[in-house]
Amino acid sequence: EIVLTQSPGSLSLSPGDRATLSCRASQSVSNNYLAWYQQKPGQTPRLLIYHASNRATDIPARFSGSGSGTDFTLTISALEPEDFAVYYCQQYGSTLPPMTFGPGTRVEI
Amino acid sequence: QITLKESGPALIKPTQTLTLTCSLSGVSVDSYDMGVGWIRQPPGKALEWLAFVYFNDDKRYDLSLMSRLRIAMDAPKNQVVLTVTNVDPADTATYFCARRAGGIKSYGAIYFDFWGPGILVTVSS
């Protein structure tokens, strides 16, 4: 099973700051099949990025994903007040099991 | 517009069987390339994937829980049902169902673009 580690566990920033979130896999993620989700308190996860670097529908351009193999990054170029949330990575490149989620990174003010 | 909604008991006793239903609208569970997964989130904790069923009834389970999980598709009702046997307080969580994103070329690739609002299930005597 591919285990995902996210760092840092939490990040204290201000609106306008750049946020860099890391997701590291215990083994190479096939085809760079990695997604990022945003979850605000009491809300449903929202798909941000898929295939490591593709923005999902209606996701602002300030969100970008990069990386390959075992190391992936989600960057928020300039934080907006609504971006303070928990961010999860998910790999879907394995077979058994077909997916795993990371433990999350909390971005807070 | 695609929507999903979970339903089931809010409170269940230890050792009982939990049955959750995901009702979909705006898309058919058996339409080509469709798939529905169940993911749970204990209070204050991370997301945990549980099970997944494809449009053709092909199923996948989390390895550590698969002996207690069953996922089933009911195409006429446009629903997906998850059962969890022998529940324990550690199964207390918000349970989400979610749709496999459309347009994925690789059959084995599963990520989710539409999610239900979730249902909080508490396991307690």
The major beta sheet of chain A can be summarized as: 7 strands, mixed
Q: For the CA atoms, what is the radius of gyration of chain A?
A: 13 Å
Query: Which residues of chain A form runs of ≥5 with pLDDT under 50?
Result: none
State the low-pLDDT regions of chain B, or none: none
Number of strands of chain B: 11
Strand percent estimate of chain A:
over 45%
Counting H and I runs of at least 4 residues, what is the number of helices of chain A? 0
Number of helical stretches of at least 4 residues of chain B:
0
Mean pLDDT of chain B equals 96
* Class per helix and strand makeup of chain A: mainly beta
| N-to-C span of chain B | 40 Å
Q: What is the arithmetic mean of pLDDT of chain A?
A: 95
| Largest protein interface, residues of each chain | A-B, 27 and 24 residues
Shape of chain B: globular
Structure, explained:
The complex is a heterodimer of chains A (109) and B (125). Chain A is mainly beta and 109 residues long. Chain A contains no helices and eleven strands. Chain A is 0% helix and 47% strand. In chain A, the strands form two sheets. In chain A, strands 2, 4, 5, 6, 9, 10 and 11 form a seven-stranded mixed beta sheet that branches. In chain A, strands 1-3-8-7 form a four-stranded antiparallel beta sheet, with no helix packed on it. In chain A, strand 4 (34-39) and strand 5 form a beta hairpin. The mean pLDDT of chain A is 95. Chain B starts with a strand and ends with a strand. In chain B, the strands form two sheets. In chain B, strands 2, 4, 5, 6, 9, 10 and 11 form a seven-stranded mixed beta sheet that branches. In chain B, strands 1-3-8-7 form a four-stranded antiparallel beta sheet, with no helix packed on it. Chain B has 125 residues and is mostly beta strands. Chain B has no helices and eleven strands. In chain B, a hairpin with a 4-residue loop joins strand 7 and strand 8. At the A-B interface, strand 4, strand 5 and strand 10 of A face strand 5 and strand 10 of B.
